[in-house]
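Page 37, continued from 36.
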């Protein structure tokens, strides 16, 4: 066996070695990574390897299967591995900071990777990073009645639990004052048509309103996203320091759905860019009694679409049909990914909020 084949075999064995975490991408958790950063000693997926290529002083990548590996480099990979390196670079990730998953957008992955390895924000011996607190800056906001994006000033007051935005740069009176307790934010890059597109959702007069915003800087928009999460976590901790409706049969209605995997919510709208959602379903974990199946309950038939799925919650079942079996499989995969992810402290606090409201 040649050196090339022997080292390739050793690397493939490393990927499957128990207790190393190498079977999943070190940065986003995607299964079966085919690439590696041989400067950091981690195995990563193709998408994350593209981000690593952007800072060669810190990380250098190779294909596990296609590139030539020297003995010393394989030994370095053996001494390190995903879990050991994560213990170093993810020693102090704040509870509010969103850790991207395999299906998340590129800007979230890019800024997570840069925060870990380039800026070294979460190392045990690094400088303590305080919660974001107040924040002020400009974002491009989509007009409610047209597709034009306009520059707007946003102000986050963490202690007061408020987000404000102004139509005039030096204006004294905000266009909207949004309570953090009613706010949610999620990246919707395809829906907004921008790689940094962020959707901010909040309650207003009994309805849910959406703001579609972006910033030219990936770091800036992700910092805004995590600042909003930090403010909401602070509110939930203060409000809940200890940290549904009856089932009914209705005719099927055609709706546009968006899965917010970060906040574990399935949102639905009458039209894709509606400012107000018509409803939402929280997706907990299997341990809490949530599940999804690839069928329809007995005695229920879709109008025209035959590919169905059922979301089971502790309170009721939600029944959906899809236009094709391909879309059904994609939705099932995405929903099961959410179900399999552990609940974050923010998820648990949000669940406590909803439980408190239902009592």
């Amino acid at each position: 066996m040649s050196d090339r084949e022997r080292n390739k075999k050793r690397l493939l064995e490393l990927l499957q070695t128990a207790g190393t975490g190498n079977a999943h991408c070190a940065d986003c958790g995607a299964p079966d990574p085919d690439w590696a950063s041989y400067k950091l000693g981690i195995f990563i997926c193709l998408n994350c390897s593209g981000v690593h290529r952007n800072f060669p002083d810190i990380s250098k990548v190779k294909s596990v299967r296609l590139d030539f590996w020297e003995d010393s480099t394989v030994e370095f990979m053996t001494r390190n591995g995903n879990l050991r390196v994560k213990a170093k670079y993810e020693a102090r990730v704040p509870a509010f900071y969103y850790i991207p998953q395999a299906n998340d957008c590129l800007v979230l992955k890019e800024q997570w990777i840069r925060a870990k390895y380039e800026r070294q924000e979460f190392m045990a011996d690094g400088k303590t990073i305080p919660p974001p607190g107040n924040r002020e800056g400009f974002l491009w906001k989509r007009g409610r009645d047209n597709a034009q994006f306009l520059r707007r000033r946003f102000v986050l007051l963490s202690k007061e639990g408020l987000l404000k935005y102004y139509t005039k740069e030096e204006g004294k009176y905000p266009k909207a004052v949004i309570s953090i307790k009613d706010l949610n934010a999620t990246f919707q890059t395809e829906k907004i048509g921008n790689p940094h597109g962020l959707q901010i959702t909040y309650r207003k007069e009994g309805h849910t309103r959406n703001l579609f915003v972006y910033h030219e800087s990936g770091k800036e928009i992700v910092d805004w996203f995590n600042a909003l999460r930090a403010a909401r976590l602070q509110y939930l901790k203060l409000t809940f320091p200890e940290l549904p409706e009856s089932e009914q049969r209705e005719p099927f209605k055609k709706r546009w759905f968006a899965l917010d995997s970060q906040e574990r919510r399935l949102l639905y709208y009458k039209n894709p860019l509606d400012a107000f959602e018509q409803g939402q379903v929280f997706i907990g974990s299997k341990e809490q009694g949530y599940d999804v199946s690839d069928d329809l309950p007995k005695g229920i038939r879709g109008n025209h679409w035959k590919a169905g799925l059922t979301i089971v919650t502790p309170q009721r079942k939600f029944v959906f049909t899809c236009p094709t079996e391909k879309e059904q499989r994609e939705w099932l995969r995405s929903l099961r990914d959410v179900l399999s992810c552990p609940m974050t402290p923010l998820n648990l606090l949000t669940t406590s909020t909803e439980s408190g409201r239902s009592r």
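The first helix runs from residue 3 to 16. Flag for discussion at group meeting. Residues 243-250, 355-359 have pLDDT under 50 and may be disordered.
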